[in-house]
Design brief:
Elements lengths: L3 E9 L13 H26 L6 E5 L1 H7 L2 H24 L4 H24 L4 H10 L3 E6 L13 H18 L6 E3 L9 H7 L4 E4 L1 H5 L13 E3 L4 E4 L2 H8 L24 H4 L17 E5 L5 E3 L2 H29 L5 E8 L10 H13 L21 E2 L23 H18 L5 H17 L2 H6 L3 H27 L4 H10 L16
Parallel strand pairs: 1-2, 1-10, 2-3, 3-4, 4-5, 5-7, 6-11
Antiparallel strand pairs: 6-7, 8-9
Helix pairs in contact: 1-5, 1-12, 3-4, 11-12, 13-14, 13-16, 14-16, 14-17
Length: 530
């Protein structure tokens, strides 16, 4: 059989959440959950595979905001405190459930995982888990893609090239701070594409990006290889298309693998079920209920209609069966594609939010590991990294990709709608003003330069896609609105202060300490290109 492979790409993204004056807020705990259930378990799986000599290939796009949070000393310390509280609380939970052996075993399982997380985080990685991901990248197991400084929906600013350039350049600067290799691929947030973006990406030296299925299928002209190989834009940038059907097989909210009866019900957590007094040692309920990791129920309902207790051994055995099923279906698809393309090398691109594995789907990291283990003993399918599949065919038609994103609508209805369209004019006006400031003050130093850098930083934060999508979800809308307005207000303070030639040093220092990301920020990235 010809060269066939699967390439898996994870979007490791999270908005910048750092509140020095509000320890224990709900949003901060979500970051800790991602460390506990996604990134540390993923590193353990990668380490186990490497130790046993089992090949694995995985591409990851780490957003600069997530990188900055992972490397922040305050959040690192708070994460360790969070782990200690969780482990200690497990002892009281063992006592509360003393009459139920099955629940006690699940409590011990969660405590063991948290203790393992603490050991790995403190003793093995010395709080620097990005360093371990970089190790796997330099050894050829992982390919790390670059992406924008904040998860900016680039089509919203496609007519303001300075905004797009600023996002890419600041993101690249952060990438170089945390990783060794020069990135070949670029991850478009939400895989959001509009014509012209390929020109910008190519100008920065990127070789490929990834689009949603219809971004390639509706291209002009449609590529001969469909979604089973990289296509080439007219300017030479290669593009892959995510196989949406393959991804939905895993993530569909109704029928995806995480919805199988044996899986842990990650929404049924004691953080939403016990009273405030019982939960007080863990967190203050008045600041918002949240996940704790103590979850005891599967998605399977018994004869009495009640949820059955989660059985880890059965769940992980079934996960292996799911992995086999997934591989078999991809093999069948790839064989058909290879036959139709007369033996051309073909691949299937699967791209997922990283947080889905472990955080949303508890067994998700184990499923990924099982994929690599089972593929290693087969000769009919393998995994590959995107750069290895970038192929320029001399006779290939050059294409113009189509507008697309990976949202359910396929375009931008989830980003701009009646719940959040009031935000767009404000951020556009601030963006135009920032460009004007960068052009008017190209050589400033000292306090004025600090102020301009902070204005640029706050504008990048205001452009964060998560504030727009958060406005569409009732439980997140208040926080999203507050964060958007906070950054926009900070930008405006700087803008107006430059007119009056005065800015409060105390306010500036306080704001810099709160949003301490992009330490090497250079406001000149917003300048018009000469």
């Amino acid at each position: 059989m010809s060269d066939t492979s699967i390439q898996i790409i994870l979007d490791a993204d999270m908005p910048f959440i750092r509140h020095p004056d509000k320890p224990g807020c709900v949003e901060e705990s979500r970051f800790f959950d991602s460390l506990s259930f996604t990134y540390l378990p993923l590193l353990r799986s990668c380490t186990a595979l490497e130790t046993e000599g089992i090949p694995f290939k995985l591409a990851i796009a780490f957003s600069p905001t997530l990188c900055e949070m992972m490397s922040d000393p305050l959040l690192q310390t708070r994460y360790i405190e969070y782990l200690d509280r969780t482990i200690e609380y497990g002892l009281s939970e063992l006592e509360r459930c003393s009459s139920d052996p099955a629940l006690r075993e699940l409590i011990k399982l969660n405590m063991d995982m948290m203790q393992l997380n603490r050991r790995d985080y403190v003793e093995i990685y010395d709080r620097n888990i990005l360093g371990k991901f970089d190790y796997f990248a330099t050894h050829g197991f992982i390919e790390i893609l670059a992406t924008t400084a904040t998860s900016c929906f680039l089509p919203m600013f496609s007519d303001i090239p300075e905004a797009v350039n600023a996002q890419i350049e600041t993101g690249l600067l952060t990438y170089r701070t945390h990783f060794t290799a020069i990135p070949s691929g670029f991850w478009l947030p939400a895989m959001a594409y509009t014509p012209g973006i390929e020109v910008v990406l190519k100008s920065y030296g990127f070789q490929y990006t990834v689009l949603e299925t219809h971004g390639l299928l509706f291209a002009s002209p449609a590529p001969d290889t469909g979604i089973f190989a990289s296509a080439t834009c007219k300017n030479g940038l290669s593009v892959f298309a995510r196989d949406k059907n393959s991804c939905l097989e895993v993530t569909d909210p109704s029928t995806g693998f995480a919805r199988a009866p044996f899986c842990l019900d990650t929404e049924r957590d004691i953080g939403f079920e016990l009273d405030s007094e019982t939960l007080a040692p863990l967190f203050d309920v008045n600041t918002g209920r949240r996940l704790t990791g103590f979850r005891y129920w599967s998605r399977h309902a018994g004869a009495d209609g009640k949820r059955a207790v989660y059985e880890p051994a059965k769940a992980h055995e079934a996960v292996r069966a799911q992995a086999l099923e997934f591989l078999d279906r991809r093999k069948e698809t790839l064989e058909k594609a290879s036959s139709l393309l007369e033996g051309e090398p073909v691949c299937i691109t699967c791209a997922f939010p990283a947080s889905y594995f472990g955080t949303e789907w508890y067994e998700g990291v184990a499923w990924l590991e099982s994929l690599f283990r089972q593929a290693a003993v087969r000769s009919d399918i393998s995994f590959s990294l995107p750069l290895a599949n970038v192929r320029l065919r001399p006779a290939e038609k050059r294409i113009d990709p189509y507008h697309s994103s990976w949202f359910a609508s396929g375009y931008a209805e989830e980003v701009l709608n009646s719940t959040n369209d009031w935000m767009y004019p404000y951020v556009r006006k601030a963006t135009v003003r920032m460009i004007d400031l960068a052009d008017r003050f190209p050589d400033d130093t000292g306090l004025k330069e600090r102020s301009l850098n902070m204005a640029a930083r706050e504008l990048l934060l205001a452009q964060t896609l998560d504030w727009y999508t958060g406005m569409t979800r009732s439980e997140e809308s208040e926080y999203a609105k507050a964060r958007f307005e906070e950054s926009l207000k900070a930008f405006t303070v700087v803008y107006e202060s430059l007119g009056s030639n005065f800015i409060s040093t105390e306010w500036l220092t306080t704001t810099e300490k709160k949003h301490n990301l992009f330490r090497d920020m250079n406001y000149r990235v917003f300048s018009h290109k000469k």
